Amino acid sequence: MQIQNAATVEEARLAIFDASESLSILGALRHIKDLDERDDLVLEAAQDYFEGRVKVGLEQLAEGLETFGLAEAIRKHPSEFEGLFLKSSKSLVAKDLISLFQPNFSPRGSNRRREENRVLCFWRDWLMEGDQCIPVTLEKVLIFASGLDRLPPLGFQVPPSLEFLHATGCRRPLP
Question: Which of 7, 80, 91, 157 is at a distance of 20 to 30 A from 97, taking alpha carbons?
Answer without folding.
Answer: 80
